[in-house]
Amino acid sequence: MPTPAPSTSTPEGPGSVTGVPDLPPGFADTFTSGYVDTGTLRLHAVTGGEGPALLLLSGWPQNWYAWRLLMPELARRFRVVAVDPRGVGLSDKPRDGYDTGTLAADTADLMTALGHHRFAVVGHDIGMWMGYALAADHPERVTRLAVAEAAIPGLSPSPPLFGSTEANNRLAHFAFNRLPELNEQLVSGREELFFGHQFATKAAKPLPVSAVRYYVDTLARDPEALRCSFAPYRALGETMAQNERRALRRLSLPVLAIGGGEVLGAGVGETMARGADDVETLVLPGCGHYPAEEAPEAMLDALTGFLAPYREGKDD
């Protein structure tokens, strides 16, 4: 197994392994937080476990903590790397670089710095956007791709402006989050209302109060964190153009598409079938937008089976 490069320093406090609520028992015995210098910026990653490398990419408005319930069991089989991408959590927050091409390059550089040339990827929400870009832009690096609960701008059909009430309620944040500057002015001081509404309306099974409070506090604590939470949406024009080009060279690696039965369902697989040839679709009944937190056992079972050939060296 490759030996990870040393981090520049070990963070402590809010956002690190030592500063988040309600981790599974023994979590800190397996996982550590570290800052990793990729050569272009400093990213925070939580790493632990033994085996082939597995990269976890969280979605909006979350961070590495979204994977906490899956990580201990995954670490029995893999070297787990749960990253705070550019602009998220404890990672650097530059003004630009939030298109998925740049975000994917960031994570590829992170895995290089940690000594992992080949790895599998699991991405949720915006992490699904990043995972698709990573597999398309760096095909020599990614062995398998599991994605959950997102449409991919530039790959999925654009919804109509005047759609159903259900569709509007689910997708209204796309247009709002792309607005310049006004977002921060309207949400600042009302983070609990805005982000709390996202979690409350998109989960079929309510997330723990402590988890929602942690996510909200992370964004409320730092104006730069709030700005960066909108940045991938403001970069959607560039991302969509990239994805239109990516779709011309279809993915050949195995893809697992996971949808919550109460939200996107089979739509995740339909999205990935537009850009990949080997797609397996799984719908989790009774699950909303956050399968890693709403249905961790079902998601873990799915990932364990899907990633088994990679773990056994059959993908090389």
TrEMBL record:
Gene Ontology MF, one: hydrolase activity
Record-level GO cellular component terms: membrane
Residue ranges of every copy of the AB hydrolase-1 domain listed in the record: 52-295
Keyword Hydrolase: yes
Source species, domain of life: Bacteria
Skewed-composition ranges (Polar residues): 1-11
Region (Disordered): 1-23
This protein's UniProt keywords: Hydrolase
This protein's record includes keyword Hydrolase: yes
Pfam families (alphabetical): Abhydrolase_1
Cited InterPro entries: AB_hydrolase_1, AB_hydrolase_fold, AB_hydrolase_sf, Epox_hydrolase-like
Gene3D superfamilies (alphabetical): alpha/beta hydrolase (3.40.50.1820)
Protein name (database record): Alpha/beta hydrolase
Species per Swiss-Prot/TrEMBL record: Streptomyces griseoaurantiacus
